Amino acid sequence: MDLERDLEFLYEIGSLRFVQRAWRQFHNPNFQNFPEHSFRIVWIAMVIARRENVGDINKIVKMALLHDLPESRTGDADYLNRLYTEQNETKAINDIFNNTSLKELTELWQEYRKMECIEAKIVKDADNLDVDFELQEQFYMGNKIRDSWAPLRKNVAEKKLFTKTAKEIWDKIYNSNPHDWHLHAPNRYTEGDWQPDPIIKPAE
């Protein structure tokens, strides 16, 4: 283990905030960047694991943080790019962790890629669902790509999701309002000084 390599690794992690996801090419500059995508995947995966009552949460969190890490060096490739490019993700993950204090995580990434254990399947479900969450958010911001991609996403829901919970979440996303979290939260309207005046019934 080399402390200098650990510092280089941590700077590389910091640089991920500048790595954009490839589908930003599809007429919108405001899609999530790499860390934003990975951050929500962690939380989606934990929700799925808890609701399914399966898996090692610590392992799931690590896998979720690792799942796209090779893209620090390979870049992202969307469903169009992948017909024309090859990404040597195994070399990238090995080189990223080479001689660092965390080099054993390459084995966990390889386990994720095999997609055999329940933790890997949960993280992949979360990875897929985050796309649907963002498509719904983009729809509320006026981007209609959600409708264009409806057949593609339905295919993912029917053929690519592993867990019952992921399928249930997918069914609800496209009828959900991304603003409900703050509209339904304790706020000035629901509990504070903006509450509507109570209707005063006339005396009988």
A few lines on this structure:
This protein has 204 residues and is an all-alpha fold.
Provide an overview of this structure:
- The chain is an all-alpha fold and 204 residues long.
- The protein has one domain: Hypothetical protein af1432, CATH 1.10.3210.
- The chain is built from 11 helices and no strands.
- Helix 2 runs antiparallel to helix 3 and helix 3 packs across helix 6.
**Low-pLDDT windows of residues:** none
How big a fraction of the residues is strand? under 5%
Helicity, in percent? 55-70%
One letter per element, helices H and strands E, the order comes to HHHHHHHHHHH
What general form does the structure show? Answer: elongated
CATH level 3 topology: Hypothetical protein af1432
- Mean pLDDT value: 93
- Per CATH, the class reads Mainly Alpha
Terminus-to-terminus distance: 83 Å
Structural class: mainly alpha
